[in-house]
């Protein structure tokens, strides 16, 4: 099943098992047939995206993927990482942190010779080649490393090469490339990164999972979005691991950063927070283009979908009811919604059957006995006793 009447940003909502992820995949497959560029981001380990045709980022990859994509940025001399860090309120700083194993004694040359010999004898995978080196060249390289690397702890060294600008940084970057290509994935060193935010430096491994996921997604999209083609972005459950503040900002930040490209977002979510700020912005709280994001909400049931027509109550409680059929405790929306129902009933905009069905749904959604009792009282006083 597929439709053409979609918007810039499209939300697919529904309970678990309703078919949101399958529908996302169907949308992607249909766009592949149209020769569009499809990018998929799965934030759950239960990845349901097709493995063919998509550029894909999966939560299964975790922080390993983020490390790899940062490394790729360095190897490809792509400075978009600095722009994204700055956009997400980090400082324009990232340094490589190299960790050697516990048998490192401070002598690079002897350490590398031991590790290379061990790798060549015992650790080399069947499909890989031996590490081949000339002793004189290795010694020269170690001398370069000694001048460049700065100690961080007993076994850790900082590899800092700035923003690709200047002759010195270019040389340092070339040394890092050689180091990585020679020794990566050979049990000779481990790699992490230092980031900086609010004047504090910290390891990437120490960043919150939500922040690291968002950073990974921004970097991934910056590398995969194409300039001269329609891009279809499929995102499954982006709220996972995100703080509520980040949930509210998520879509706005993605749209703000990539809005100049030809793209459409399709987002499967359980979180009203993902939608709420777009609704508020539609109320002209913002005068720039961010306030004009076109979006639609589709409710998914058993793999089928229907568009949700929103009312003017943009509270989180309203979203929970409209989209997920849930009432929250101490819900001020409930009283406003009941008044609106009664007004529409008195004006004969809805029938007796329709208002009875709506009150039935409300009572079934209540967790608090007090809410149920209030609804029953309203129903008896204003509906049952005044049946038309």
In short:
The chain has 388 residues and is of the alpha/beta class. Helices cover 46% and strands 17% of the residues.
Compute the gyration radius: what is it? 28 Å
CATH level 3 topology of the largest domain = Rossmann fold
Low-confidence stretches: 282-287
Query: Termini, distance in Å?
Result: 41 Å
Q: Please give the number of β-strands.
A: 12
CATH homologous superfamily assignment of the largest domain: P-loop containing nucleotide triphosphate hydrolases
* Corresponding CATH architecture of the largest domain: 3-Layer(aba) Sandwich
- Helical content band: 40-55%
Write up this protein.
Helix 7 runs parallel beside helix 8 (244-258), helix 8 packs across helix 9 and helix 12 (352-365) packs antiparallel against helix 13 (369-382). The chain has 388 residues and is of the alpha/beta class. It folds into 3 domains: 9-62 and 210-307, P-loop containing nucleotide triphosphate hydrolases (Rossmann fold); 92-198, no CATH class; 330-386, no CATH class. The strands form 2 sheets. It has a 7-stranded mixed sheet with strand order 3-2-9-10-1-11-12, sandwiched between helices. Strands 5-6-4-7-8 form a 5-stranded antiparallel sheet, covered by helices on one side. It has helices spanning 20-33, 62-75, 80-87, 108-123, 135-148, 167-183, 209-224, 244-258, 273-285, 316-324, 332-346, 352-365, 369-382; strands at residues 9-13, 37-42, 55-58, 94-100, 150-151, 156-159, 189-197, 200-203, 231-236, 263-269, 295-301, 304-307. It has 13 helices and 12 strands.
